[in-house]
Every structure is written in C-alpha cells, then in structure tokens.
Design a protein that fits this description.
By secondary structure, the protein is an alpha/beta fold. The protein folds into two domains: 1-43; 47-173, Glutaredoxin, CATH 3.40.30.10. Helices cover 45% and strands 17% of the residues. It has helices at residues 2-42, 82-93, 95-98, 112-122, 135-139, 167-173, and strands spanning 55-56, 71-76, 103-108, 128-130, 147-152, 155-161. It has a six-stranded mixed sheet. It is globular, with a radius of gyration of 21 Å.
C-alpha cells in the first residue's frame, strides 16, 4: 500500500514538474506581450487623438468633436470583457464626482443591442460611442480591453489598459481629486 502511495506521489510530482514551467512560460509571455503593447500604446502620448466618426450608440448623435474639448477619458470597451464591466461600473458609481471635472466617453465596435444591454445591466452613466467604420480601433491598434486614453483638448496625455483597483486608483489615473 505504501509503495502504491509513493508511486502516485512520484507521478504527481512529475506532472507538476512538467506543467509548472509551461504555465510560468505562458504567464511571462503574456506579461511580455502586455508590456510591449503598453509601450506601443504609450507612444501615442503627446499626439492628437485620431480623427474618426463616433456616434452615440443610443441616439446616434455625432460625438466626433466632443473628444477635442477639455479633459476627456476615452475607454475602449467590450461587453464580454470582465475588466470592462468592472471599470465601467466603477466609473458609473463615481460619475457624479467625476462628471464636473472630466468628460467620460466609452467607445465600442459591438452591435447596438449588445451595448444597450450592457448599459442597462451595469447602470452605465456615460455615453458609449460607436466606431462604426472601426477606423479609430485600427488607427490606435487596440488589442486589449479596456484600453484607456486620457485626453486634454484632443491630445493624448496618458494611456493605460486594465481596470483601476479601486476608486482611489481611478481618481489617481484620471488626475482628479476626490472631493
């Protein structure tokens, strides 16, 4: 019986020994790709936000010029993205504190019906715009969601992807003081 238990322990140890390095390789590969993407996305800092036709997903009003006015947070979102859901909810929960200092605009390439469900389910309080021609998505080479751009009068001042940890992290990224 003891010999059988030892065989199982050896088999388990061998399996772990084979799987663990491969898992570490995948994690490091993902981190390397993510850091490369962040470096690529950050290269846009200091440049003008690309021109594009952006329409409010709800009423189809043209928002193309809104991005060029004042301080704006642009968030690229997908409805199936857990980080997008978390960030959108965090922003909406703090919208009244943020709205006076910064304009928040979500951008998507998804269908109107999917976005309407997303807005209703997560209580989104900021406009979500539709990149109908997918030109902006291509110009900015969006690979990860959510990707965030902080703009000042149409110029990109900061770029990041992923969700802020909490309200304080969000306010720090947005360079806004919690009142």
């Amino acid at each position: 019986m003891k010999l059988l238990q030892n065989k199982y322990l050896i088999i388990v140890a061998v399996i772990i020994g084979l799987i663990l390095p491969f898992g570490c390789f995948l994690v490091f590969k993902s981190l390397k790709e993510a850091n490369a993407y962040l470096a690529e996305a950050s290269a846009y800092n200091g440049t003008s936000f690309p021109e594009s036709q952006l329409y409010n997903i709800i009423d189809e009003s043209d928002f193309s010029d809104e991005i060029k006015k004042g301080k704006v947070l642009v968030i690229y979102v997908l409805t199936g993205c857990q980080a997008c859901k978390k960030e959108s909810k965090l922003i909406s929960d703090n919208f009244s504190k943020l709205d006076s200092e910064i304009k928040i605009l979500g951008i998507t390439i998804e269908k109107k019906s999917d976005i309407e469900d997303f807005i209703n389910q997560y209580g989104i309080k900021f406009p979500i715009l539709y990149d109908k021609e997918v030109t902006l998505h291509e110009k900015l080479k969006i690979k990860y969601f959510p990707t965030n751009f902080l703009l000042e009068n149409g110029k990109i001042t900061k770029t990041w992807f992923g969700t802020p940890i909490d309200k304080n992290d969000l306010f720090q990224k947005l360079e806004v003081i919690d009142k």
